[in-house]
Amino acid sequence: MGSNLSFPEVEIPPDRTYIVTGGNSGIGYNAAREIARMGGHVIIACRNMSKAETAIQQMQEEYEKEFKAKQAKLPVTDRTEPKKLNVEKMELDLASFEKTLKFIEEFKARNLPLHCLICNAGIAMKTKEMTEDGYETNLQANYLSHLLIILHFLPILQKSGDDCRIVQTSSMAYRMGKLDMNNINYEQSFGSTSSYSNSKLYQIISMYWLTRHVKDKSVTITSVHPGFVKTPLTERNALIRKFMAFSRNGYEGATTTIKAAIDPTYKGETGVYFSDCKISSTTSYPKNIERQDKLMAYSFQVLDKYLPRDIKQYVDM
Hints:
By secondary structure, the chain is of the alpha/beta class. It has one domain (about 15-315): Rossmann fold, CATH 3.40.50.720. The chain has helices spanning about 25-35, 50-70, 95-110, 135-160, 190-215, 230-235, 240, 250-260, 290-305; strands spanning about 15-20, 40-45, 85-90, 115-120, 165-170, 220-225, 270-275, 280. An eight-stranded mixed sheet has the order 3-2-1-4-5-6-7-8, with helices on both faces. Strand 5 (about 165-170), helix 5 (about 190-215) and strand 6 form a beta-alpha-beta unit. Helix 4 (about 135-160) packs parallel to helix 5 (about 190-215).
C-alpha cells in the first residue's frame, strides 16, 4: 500500500524556516524530523512543552542512529560526525484564541522569516466539548485557530522570499462533512464523526477561498490527505479505527505532507489537494463558491477581534 509514498531528498538551506503545528507526535513529528534532517530550521508548535522537548530529543537520537549506521559502511577516513538538528519548540494551544494569538505574537516578535507553515495539529473529540471561547473543540482547534494563524502569517510568508507555502493536513473524511450554517457550532446536534469530518471539510473550503481572495499569489496553499494513519489521534477515533487494518505508520502518513512542503516540482502549485504523494481531486462540494463565501463570512465574524488590523491589504474581503 505504501510503495508509492515518497518525497525527494533535497538540501534545505538552514535559514529556511518551517512551522509544524502538532510536531511532537504522529504525522507532525515525522514531518518535522525529516525536514530538519534535510537541513531546515523547524519549529514545532505544541500545547505540551514537556512532550515537545522529549520529541526533539527523540528526533536527534533517531537521526544519529540512522546517520551512524550509514557512516559504518564508509571507509574510516570518509566518516563525519552527525549534525545537531535545528529543531525548537514554541507553545501553542489551538483550543484558545487568546493563546493562539499569544503564539502568533511571540513568533512575530522574533522577526524570523517563514517559508512554510504546516497546519498539522488535529483532534477528534468523542463528545461535545466547548472551548473557553464558546466553540466546539474540533471546530476551533482543527479549523478556526489554524485559519487565524494563516491570516496573521500570510504577510510574513509573502516577504520571506521565493517559494513559500502553507500546507494543511486535512483528511479524506472531508467527504462525509457538510456545511450547515444552522448547526455549524453544533447548536442543534453533535456527532463525533461529523464534527471531525466537518472540520477537515472547512480546511479545504478555506483553501479554495484563500486561493481566490489572497491578493499576492506568491504563497501557495494546499491540503493533503495523509491516508489512514495509526497515531494517538486516530486510535481514539471510532470512524478511523475501522480502517486500521489498512493503516499507515506515522512516517508513511507524513510523506504526502513532506512532499507538499518541500518538493521543488510543486513550486507555484496552489489550491490543490494531495493524496498518496500526488495531486488529486476533491469533490465538487468544497469548490462551491457560495458555500465558500458563507463559511468564510462566519469565520471572519468569529475571529474578528483577533484578526490583523491590516488584513484588507492582503486579503480581498
